[in-house]
């Protein structure tokens, strides 16, 4: 997939572009359905499916206190977009100048004149331009002037409710990573680097990989069944997210993400890894002493093994 990150690089060089535009945070079931439809439609007219998105999220610039925590990093978002066979992704740099561009100028000068698309598809609540004054109606009006088709994205539902990035954020904040796995059609994942920790896990004979992550959104504190990917290879793991209340002083506590990789004893400090979340086993809690903590950790490991045995039985591919 070609990734264009500068408007100067965006030129009308693609045959009959069929495009969609949005933030696409999480690239969830609804987004994926749209992008697959885009690929099919482009093939029907001999065109090129193109996804346009923004970086950073507009609210991070315009109203940072109200900006939603992003479900993915930009790299993760682009990887999922590529997985649904989109050949071109355009990351529009969102800055003050763009924010002050009128809706009409944005549609014509930023989009139409740079791509000359044949068709464009947007979400039901899509708004664009300065102060979000541009609407679907305006885009359709401009399309009639310029000769492109404007269409609305159909909504995708799961168990009777609309799939949305907001619903996914709420589920992650409450620790419902199993539900999130269904809404994303893949496990939620944190990317990051393994960094040195306090070394307590190894002392307790349960060594952990401590993850430092650029992801904005982290699941609710607790213990999770996870899959750690290192250099393309997947390892079964159990992960604690929290402040380690049994061993840390509250005023000095720092959020930690610690993954114990099953049947694994290698030094991976400094390695880049991906940590995928399958289910939440339990909330984080304080134990009376280290002995009680160690006993619970063994129970968590046992429950993790049991989960993966069940996954094998149903032939679930991670």
Summarize, please:
With 318 residues, the protein is α/β, with parallel strands linked by helices. Helix content is 33%, strand content 26%. The chain has two domains: 2-158, Rossmann fold, CATH 3.40.50.620; 187-312, Elongation Factor Tu (Ef-tu), domain 3, CATH 2.40.30.
CA radius of gyration is: 22 Å
* Number of structural domains: 2
- What oligomeric state best describes the polypeptide chains here? single chain
CATH class of the largest domain: Alpha Beta
According to DSSP, the number of beta strands is: 14
Strand order of the largest sheet: 1-4-3-2-5-6
Order of helices and strands: EEHEHHEHHEHEEEHHEHEEEEEH
| CATH-defined superfamily of the largest domain | HUPs
Name of the CATH architecture of the largest domain: 3-Layer(aba) Sandwich
Question: What amount of the residues lies in strands?
Answer: 25-35%
Q: How far is the N terminus from the C terminus?
A: 23 Å
Low-pLDDT parts are none
For the report, how would you describe the main beta sheet? 6 strands, parallel
Instruction: Count up the helices.
Output: 10
Overall mean pLDDT score? 92
Percentage of residues assigned to helices: 25-40%
Overall 3D shape? elongated
Q: Structural class from helices and strands?
A: alpha/beta
CATH fold-level label of the largest domain: Rossmann fold
């Amino acid at each position: 997939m070609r990734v264009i990150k500068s408007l100067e690089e965006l030129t009308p060089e693609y045959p009959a572009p069929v495009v969609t535009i949005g933030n696409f945070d999480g690239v969830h079931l609804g987004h994926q359905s749209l992008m697959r439809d885009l690929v099919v439609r482009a093939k029907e007219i001999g065109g090129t499916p193109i996804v346009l998105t923004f970086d950073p999220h507009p609210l991070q610039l315009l109203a940072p206190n109200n900006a939603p925590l992003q479900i993915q990093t930009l790299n993760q978002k682009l990887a999922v977009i590529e997985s649904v066979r989109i050949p071109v992704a355009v990351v529009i740099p969102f800055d003050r100048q763009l924010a002050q561009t009128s809706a009409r100028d944005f549609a014509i000068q930023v989009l139409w004149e740079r791509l000359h698309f044949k068709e464009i598809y947007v979400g039901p609540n899509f708004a664009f331009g300065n102060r979000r004054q541009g609407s679907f109606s305006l885009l359709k009006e401009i399309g009639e002037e310029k000769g492109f088709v404007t269409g609305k994205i159909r909504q995708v539902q799961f168990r009777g409710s609309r799939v949305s990035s907001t619903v996914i954020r709420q589920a992650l904040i409450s620790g419902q990573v199993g539900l999130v796995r269904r809404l994303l059609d893949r496990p939620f994942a944190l990317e990051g680097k393994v960094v040195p920790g306090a070394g307590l896990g190894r002392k307790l004979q349960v060594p952990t990989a401590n993850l430092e992550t650029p992801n904005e959104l982290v699941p609710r504190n607790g213990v999770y069944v996870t899959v750690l990917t290192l250099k393309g290879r997947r390892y079964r793991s159990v992960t604690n997210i929290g402040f380690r209340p049994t061993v840390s002083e509250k005023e000095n506590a720092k959020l930690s993400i610690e993954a114990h990789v099953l049947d694994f004893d290698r030094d991976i400090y400094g390695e880049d890894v991906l940590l995928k979340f399958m289910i939440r086993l339990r909330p984080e809690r304080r134990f009376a002493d280290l002995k009680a903590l160690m006993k619970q950790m063994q129970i968590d490991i046992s429950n993790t093994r049991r989960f993966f045995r069940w996954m094998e039985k149903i032939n679930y591919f991670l």
